[in-house]
Design a protein that fits this description.
This protein is mainly beta. The chain is built from 1 helix and 4 strands; from the N terminus they run E-H-E-E-E. It is found in: Plastid, Chloroplast.
Amino acid sequence: MAKGKDVRVTVILECTSCVRNKVNGVARGISRYITQKNRHNTPNRLELRKFCPYCYEYTIHGEIKK
């Protein structure tokens, strides 16, 4: 049986440059990735460099709340 506090949790990574660089207040789109992290090894928010199809480059994707 699964316990209440799982060690591995599912997190959503969102492109930080897409959120900041809105064109006329409306974003073209926001790149998001779903991954897992170990809560014991990485207690802080996760940040990874991933490819953003809207920016056409590798950018920092940060963890957001669900």
